[in-house]
Amino acid sequence: MKASVIEMFLVLLVTGIHSNKDVTKKIKRPKFTVPQINCDVKAGKIINPEFVVKCPAGCQDPKYHVYGTDVYASYSSVCGAAIHSGVLDNSGGKILVRKVAGQSGYKGSYANGVQSLSLPRWRESFVVSEGKPPKGVTYPSALTYSSPKSPAAKAGEPTKAYQKPPVPGTTAQAVTPLQLTGATATEVTLTSLPKPSPSTGSTTSSLRPQPVGHRSWELDLWSTGSYASGHNSPHANPGEMDLWQPGSVLLDAGFVPKEELSTQSLEPVSQGDPNCKIDLSFLIDGSSSIGKRRFRIQKQFLADVAQTLDIGPGGPLMGVVQYGDNPAAQFSLRTHMNSRDLKTAIDKITQRGGLSNAGRAISYVTKNFFSKANGNRGGAPNVAVVIVDGWPTDKVEEASRLARESGINIFFITVEGATENEKQYVTEPNFSNKAVCRTNGFYSLNVQSWFSLRKTVQPLLKRVCDTDRLACSKTCWNSADIGFVIDGSSSVGTGNFRTVLQFVANISKEFEISETDTRVGAVQYTYEQRLEFGFDDYHTKSDILNAIKRVGYWSGGTSTGAAINYALEQLFKKSKPNKRKLMILITDGRSYDDVRIPAMVAHHKGVTTYAIGVAWAAQDELEVIATHPASDHSFFVDEFDNLYKFVPKVIRNICTEFNSQPRN
């Protein structure tokens, strides 16, 4: 009798298992389609922590409120925020949205036709980027809403539980009752219900879809043994445990108690280290010669950097570009807003192979990486750290020069550099010294072995975070072409002319002078004009000061208008596009010719003109020559011996104007 009962039980058990397998085989993987939302859908209404959606056209309308800049409060319109951030225009399109922690405050701003508003604090935030998912990763075709009456939800469309996007090479699937093979009937019903019954007293009956990442609830569920599968529970049936499949735990599907959904309490996430507010790009060597093992060491180095840096919107932001034959951005500055997410992204980077074209990668970064759309904040220094295995296979000098002139601080880390016997194969000797803007060792590090690379984390970060020493960033002191236009007429006299030259020298020595920093040139004029030295003639401060001393007094009439035209042609026509053009004109009398048209031409060409008059100079002419507002750009001195008193004021006005303008 006992044997027959056991046989019947085994038959039923085997039949049940095969039945479940047959049903499971019939489940087809759903085809991924990008969900569409309306302009008025707020991020807080969508429970998924990360998702791709398609926005319609016309979301630039001010009725769709946006709160914050770059990082937005979840009370904002998703599509409105995408337009404000520059990811979309008013024609709509696909975007990738990622939830982040709530902020203590959100600053409003006007950008891309959208005026965002300020907000003191909010419980949850989000960031927006281009809607191109990483290769091999799919996102939900149907979003999970906190309310089933969402304006984006189609009639009759079921609300699906969100599951964390998988690693590359896998496909995200919603958890279904059929996957929970060993669950009880009650548990299966709960996973498919959008609204659990409040009358049920069990722990699992109050579970609802919720964003992944609430670590405090994870700990509670682990400690109470609240696995839906019954793992670690004293009442678990051992026979059921073996039937569970990896990934079928309700916790992994993003379920937490209903009370947690209503409070939306989030882990506090750092705003970033304000003492290291930089926009940082790593250019990593993905060439074939580096090999898989050393590439992993390079990734570990990046992870160590990410761990050490306190990444956040108020501190450093970091992106990565990998280069081989050609460069490719792995992720931009705005993609990851904390160190934890950054380390996860670094771990997923795969090697590209090919040559080691670092010069091409530097050009790519200059043209594409440090853009507003990719998260460049303007006020934060731009830093690019190039890691090279041995030596580059192309030249880096010209690409690096253009990068530095764009305000990018280039750092070079050379690992296992060429030996004496190998130097004959190096494409560009002394490439690291040619790439950086200072050859004092501050911007270049030589690492003897890949196994020693991680020892350079602290020395490197100490340098890149020392923003006062980042000489390649655009500052008031290193980003101008300054042209002095000096009156050498007879009324000045030899002694006063030497005083004028001392005034010119006192201003010049305040700036950082080099071929890539501030450059100085000078024109002297009477009835005629003469180029004393041009922007390309001297590249050190001492050479400039010596050149000023050597200028000889000319003597003659005063044709200031002609002198302005001459300076535009002989000096500023050769100015670099990314340089501020500053003309400082010193005169002691009224011009014999008209100054109005030459001054207008100078202003039209973007030359900021400072007019300094001494003794008999006509103040009405000074105001015509000076850039508007004249009160900030024209000065009158009663006698030559008092010129030195105006040096600090001229410098202060130059720097005040620079600091009020957008940088980079």
Q: Could you explain how this protein is built, in words?
A:
- One of its GO terms (biological process) is positive regulation of cell-substrate adhesion.
- This protein is an alpha/beta fold.
- The chain is built from 19 helices and 21 strands.
- Among the domains are: 88 residues, Beta Complex (Ferric Hydroxamate Uptake Protein, Chain A, domain 1), CATH 2.170.130; 191 residues, von Willebrand factor, type A domain (Rossmann fold, 3-Layer(aba) Sandwich); 179 residues, 3-Layer(aba) Sandwich (Rossmann fold).
- Helix 13 links the parallel strand 16 and strand 17.
- Helix 13 runs antiparallel to helix 14.
Residue share in helix: 25-40%
How many E strands?
A: 21
Gross geometry: globular
Largest sheet, strands/sense/barrel: 6 strands, mixed
Low-confidence region ranges: 21-27, 148-267
CATH topology of the domain at 279-469: Rossmann fold
Helix-strand category: alpha/beta
Distance between the termini: 88 Å
Task: Using the coordinates above, name the CATH class of the domain at 279-469.
Answer: Alpha Beta
For CATH, the homologous superfamily of the domain at 279-469 is named as von Willebrand factor, type A domain
Q: Count of helices?
A: 19
Fraction in beta strands = 15-25%
Name given to the CATH architecture of the domain at 279-469: 3-Layer(aba) Sandwich
Which strand order does the major sheet show? Answer: 12-11-10-13-14-15
Q: Average pLDDT value? A: 78
Radius of gyration: 33 Å
